[in-house]
Design goal:
Number of strands: 0
Distance between the termini: 19 Å
Radius of gyration: 26 Å
Number of helices: 9
Structural class: mainly alpha
Shape: rod-shaped
Order of helices and strands: HHHHHHHHH
Strand content: under 5%
Bound molecules: heme C
Number of domains: 2
Largest sheet: none
Length: 242
């Protein structure tokens, strides 16, 4: 092992260093643009400015507080409820996922009594159809990512980012650092990316996983950023006299 030497930054030409550097800087810039894009597509979903955990929850899981049905029974449609406590019955049902069994048992009787008078397609085709589960479901679930969307974004991320991380890693390999640290550092961004993608799907069902989405996304960004910065530093300021 000892006599086997590997290529390090000091062994590569200036031309190759220039190529590596412009690549790393461009990727770094691309990553910042990706962060800005993420900020603008997710911020404010919860009604507050800035990117929050709630925004991430709403993006993947959806919202149980901002459904059209929930807003209606606490707002303009509230006077139509003959029994006031039915408002809570409906809200609890929405918050617990708006399933069909409970709809049949508890929700349909309320809506049939107080709402279908107007909310029937043959009477008012422009109003939400509250005569059946499919129609009610449309206004009692809000947002959230669909599986096809998640699959589309996943394959773009996995292919695209794997390429980027591979090339960044190939350059980072030339650093002079403890070999065990290096081996771990190579794997971390890949593992973080995988965890990120998996946690999108889990957050779709379990909103608390939004924290894992944020943690793994941040970990990937940080570990990638460190590889880029250390590589550029060692390439130009560290390798000469080693
Ligand atoms: C007297 C007729 C009438 C009754 C009864 C009625 N609605 Fe409505 N509903 C309307 C009208 C009209 C609109 C459209 C209001 C608007 O867009 O400003 C509407 C709109 C809605 C909307 C859509 C709001 C949105 O996001 O655009 C929901 C949901 C709704 N009603 C639920 C209910 C529920 C639940 C009940 C029973 C508790 C009910 N409505 C009873 C007439 C009625």
């Amino acid at each position: 092992m000892a006599d086997k030497s590997f290529i390090r930054f000091k062994d590569i030409s200036i031309s190759e260093r220039i190529l590596n550097t412009v690549f790393l800087l461009t990727i770094g810039l691309g990553y910042l643009a990706a962060l800005a894009n993420m900020y603008y597509t997710h911020q404010g979903l919860d009604g507050k400015a800035g990117l929050t955990v709630d925004d991430v929850v709403i993006s993947y899981y959806g919202s149980t507080t901002q459904t059209r049905l929930g807003t209606a029974v606490t707002g303009i449609m509230k006077p139509n409820l003959k029994i006031k406590s039915d408002q809570d019955v409906i809200l609890n049902w929405i918050h617990s996922g708006a399933d069909e069994a409970t709809y049949d048992e508890k929700i349909a009787p309320i809506l049939n009594r107080d709402c279908v008078l107007c909310h029937t397609p043959s009477i008012n085709p422009s109003l939400p159809d509250l005569t059946n589960y499919a129609g009610v479901s449309e206004v009692s679930h809000a947002g959230g990512a669909t599986i096809p969307t998640l699959i589309r974004v996943s394959h773009i991320h996995l292919f695209g980012i794997a390429f980027i991380l591979f090339f960044i890693g190939k350059i980072f390999l030339l650093c002079e650092i403890n070999v065990y640290v290096k081996r771990v550092a190579m794997v971390v961004p890949f593992a973080a990316m995988l965890l990120d993608v998996v946690s999108w799907f889990i957050t779709k069902s379990i909103p608390g996983f939004a924290y894992v989405v944020i943690f793994s996304g941040a970990l990937m960004g940080l570990s990638m950023g460190l590889q880029i910065l250390l590589s550029i530093y060692q390439m130009w300021f560290f390798s000469e006299d080693n």
